[in-house]
Task: inverse folding
């Protein structure tokens, strides 16, 4: 049952607005495009909803929203993770409004219909009015398809969707590499920053593999860190070892610190001065090799991995986007820790996260400013395209179809828009 | 006699603390961040927590958890001209009131209060409401901020980017 109150676009004409290396600015602000995106992308494909570490025990849940649809991600008594529509089957009220917690079940506040952790309708009061009218077994909280890879929980409204691992495809080896920053400990979500900006979700999507902006937008952050770290982080601008790559299905990769791609490969570089004190503390309980491995992982991996359409594994954190309207997007930056790992190192990871991320960080507010300026400026010259053609002159294609260009190039954005168009054009 | 003396001392320190908090509020609205730095005890922390229940700020993720070094860097960033969000920051007007003396020792008081900031930028006003807790030290003779904790009432929701100091 589709909601006809929203106007969607004629997808057959989209090729005029989304070419392979340029897109029409109206893709950022056309409400009909936005509604079509919800229907054909966010309500069709795999959407990241939580990390398994957020639900360690039966009954643990967190709520989130896919497009406009509120859902509950919950671990049931069997240990399985369910993603349930947060909506009573009676009159539509949400059955849970907490961000996270532990529950035995979910009870609607309106008429006390009660659901189990698997979504089954367990009880409703004064059932005599329903005798011969409804069958409780036919009215559970509606379930989404669930797929889990490396602790990343994805859900889809599309019960016929391809398996998650096929969808992730060429991104999987990079997800595996990302998780190595746990240093053998499980990765744990360790708090999150949430903020909104007045701009379209695709502006954020583009940004994760946009390394070209980094030294410009984040100059004030770079001025606040030591020269050694600033030089290491921005060496990609002129390095021919740093690259951007399309991975298929809209996913893409930007490698900015090549020596930190695989954290198991120690390049032998000295421990940065600013981490020497931590290293000395860690050395009391850990071998020298372990100390190096932990310290080398504090800033995360040397790449950003963009998973179409709503998740990025970005150096040391998860970036999650949620489209709110054509002109508004919510971002979450989830901090990560070594679950059971050395507390002093996890605290340093928290401080690194706070330093850059979130509405009050030294980095994110400047990103948000740039994105809002894109949203405002794109209304000028509606016939002038948004260019995503940087590096077309130096892009190479591997036998498996993956395209690679320099780290500052826009290969990742082109991959995302290609997938966007494919999905938007599907009836 | 002793009780009256203590009461008088208490009232004077409380009034001195409130005066400092109002002075701080005025400096922040005027974005005189360098002068704001001088209000601090160098050992103090400026904290904007996320988790409404946490008191162990070092062990949890915050919006800000600034020691002296980070405060100086934050001010430097905001005044450097290199930050687009700070260079074009919202104008703010804030009210701090509903003061309560929550604890006191011979050289330090803790004062809780309510803060309402209206931040105006590009035709839009945004509200930032928070419970504040100031620890103010009188150890050096002059009142100094030894800790400021800003608990935004919507800290667990999505916030707008903040290009000024709370």
Result:
């Amino acid at each position: 049952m589709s909601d006809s109150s929203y106007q969607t676009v004629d997808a057959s004409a989209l090729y005029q607005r989304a070419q392979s290396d340029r897109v029409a600015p109206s893709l950022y602000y056309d409400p009909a495009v936005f509604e079509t995106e919800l229907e054909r992308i966010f309500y069709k494909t795999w959407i990241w909803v939580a990390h398994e570490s957020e639900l360690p025990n039966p009954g643990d849940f967190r709520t989130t929203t896919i497009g406009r649809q509120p859902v509950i991600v919950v671990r049931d008594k069997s240990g399985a993770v369910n993603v349930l529509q947060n909506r009573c089957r009676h009159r539509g009220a949400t059955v849970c409004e907490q961000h996270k917690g532990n529950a035995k079940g979910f009870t609607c506040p309106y008429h006390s219909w009660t659901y189990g952790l698997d979504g089954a309708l367990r009880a409703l009061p004064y059932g005599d009015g329903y005798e011969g009218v409804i069958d409780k077994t036919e009215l559970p909280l509606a379930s989404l398809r669930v797929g889990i890879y490396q602790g990343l929980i994805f859900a889809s409204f599309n019960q016929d969707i391809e398996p998650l691992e096929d969808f992730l495809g060429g991104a999987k080896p990079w997800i595996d590499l990302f998780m190595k920053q746990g240093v053998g400990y499980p990765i744990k979500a360790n708090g999150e920053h949430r903020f909104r900006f007045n701009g379209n979700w695709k502006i954020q999507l583009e940004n994760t593999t946009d390394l070209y902006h980094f030294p410009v937008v984040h100059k004030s952050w770079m001025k606040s860190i030591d020269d050694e770290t600033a030089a290491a982080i921005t060496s990609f601008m002129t390095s021919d070892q740093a690259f951007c790559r399309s991975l298929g299905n809209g996913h893409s990769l930007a490698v900015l610190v090549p020596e930190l791609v695989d954290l198991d490969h120690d390049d032998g570089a000295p421990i940065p001065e600013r981490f020497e004190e931590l290293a000395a503390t860690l050395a009391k309980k850990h071998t020298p090799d372990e100390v190096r491995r932990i310290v080398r992982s504090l800033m995360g991996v040397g790449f950003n991995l963009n998973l179409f359409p709503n998740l990025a594994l970005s150096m040391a954190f998860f970036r999650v986007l949620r489209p709110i309207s054509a002109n508004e997007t919510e971002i979450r930056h989830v901090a990560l820790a070594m679950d059971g790992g050395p507390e002093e190192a996890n605290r340093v990871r928290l401080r690194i996260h706070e330093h850059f991320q979130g509405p009050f960080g030294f980095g994110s507010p400047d990103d948000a400013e740039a994105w809002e300026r894109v949203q405002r400026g794109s209304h000028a010259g509606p016939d002038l395209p948004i260019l995503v053609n940087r590096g077309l002159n130096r892009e190479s294609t591997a036998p498996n179809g993956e395209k690679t260009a320099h780290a500052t190039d826009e290969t990742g954005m082109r991959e995302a828009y290609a997938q966007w168009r494919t999905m938007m054009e599907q009836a | 006699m002793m009780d009256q003396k203590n009461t008088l001392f208490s009232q004077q320190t409380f009034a001195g603390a409130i005066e400092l908090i109002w002075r701080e509020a005025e400096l922040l609205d005027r974005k005189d961040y360098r002068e704001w730095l001088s209000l601090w005890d160098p050992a103090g922390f400026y904290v904007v927590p996320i988790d409404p229940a946490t008191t162990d700020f070092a062990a949890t993720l915050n919006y800000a958890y600034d020691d002296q070094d980070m405060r100086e860097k934050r001010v430097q960033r905001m005044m450097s001209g290199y930050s687009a969000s700070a260079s074009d920051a919202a104008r703010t007007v804030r009210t701090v009131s509903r003061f309560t003396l929550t604890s006191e020792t011979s050289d330090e008081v803790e004062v809780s209060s309510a803060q309402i900031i209206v931040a105006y930028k590009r035709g839009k006003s945004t509200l930032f409401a928070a419970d504040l807790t100031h620890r103010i030290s009188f150890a050096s003779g002059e009142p100094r901020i030894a800790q400021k904790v800003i608990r935004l009432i919507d800290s667990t929701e999505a916030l707008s980017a903040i290009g000024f100091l709370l």
Summary: Chain B has a mean pLDDT of 94. Strands of chain B lie at 40-49, 62-66, 91-104, 108-121, 124-137, 144-152, 159-160. Chain B has four helices and seven strands.
